Amino acid sequence: AAGTPHRAAAAPPASTVPAPLTRFFGRGPELARLRKLLTAGEARLVTVLGPSGIGKTRLATELAGHLTEPFDGAVWFVPLAGVDAPERLTDAVLRVVRGLGEPGSDPLRQLVEALRPQPGLLVLDNFEHLLPTGGDFLEALLTQVAKLRCLVTSRRRVGMRGEREVALSPLPTPGSAATRAQLLRCPSVQLFVDRAQAVLPDFRVTAANAAAVAELCAGLEGIPLSLELAGARSG
Question: What integer pLDDT is reported at residue 138 of this predicted model?
Fold first, then answer.
């Protein structure tokens, strides 16, 4: 109404990217491509695609941590695995971006007002079970917030115009004739060894066990989750 004082939207909090609890290995080309798409390209929606266990969440967390500076802290990481219905998506994102919303006010409108002031990156992790309805939410948000970019991790594409996709492959695995030095440079081996050392601090790749380590990582086909679980069972 005319004459009603305009109350400024609450300032968004600082970056909500979770600090990693484990070391990150490999994915150099994927990180470089994603960074370029989100900071130097025209893409406003980028989807990291891949099956369960391929490392989508860990990659998104690592990337988001590197992008807090380019986006001046306006990076929000929203875990969605626990959001069981598309109609709860807006509220879940709003809670991360600005805390509790205002009762009686449209959540999408509040979210748009909170995101508009500055260029920002919204990371939506585990999005597949909220599709296709979740795509309508993304389209409404990106249409109304011109400075916003979204990074989505999902087992399937969102299906929106302008969506750019980056499909994750397994980590490289060693060949059967790999030397110990080559094993130590192989991302799948590096991941396995790091997780094994969490339970066996003295574990190393040696001349005696190199062939067995190479066979194990190749047999697990470079799937990060499988490598993590195998490393954790080393004790």
Answer: 96
Task: State residue 106's pLDDT score.
Answer: 87
Query: Which candidate, 57, 170, 31, places its Cα nearest to that of 123?
Result: 57
Q: Which residues of 124-135 are buried (b: 16+ CB within 10 A; e: fewer)?
A: bbbbbebbeebb
pLDDT at residue 17 tops 70: yes
Q: What is the mean pLDDT of residues 55-68?
A: 95
How many residues in the chain?
235
CA 116 remoteness from chain centre = 22
pLDDT digits (tens, 9 = 90+) for 84-136: 999 999 999 999 998 765 666 789 999 999 999 899 999 999 999 999 999 99
The string of DSSP codes covering the chain is -TTPPPPPPPPPPS--PPPPSS-----HHHHHHHHHHHHTSS-SEEEEE--TTSSHHHHHHHHHHHHTTTTTT-EEEEE-TT--SGGGHHHHHHHHHHSS--TTS-HHHHHHHHHTTS-EEEEEES-GGGTTHHHHHHHHHHHH-TTEEEEEEESS----TTEEEEEPPPPP---TT--HHHHHT-HHHHHHHHHHHHH-TT----TTTHHHHHHHHHHTTT-HHHHHHHHHTT-
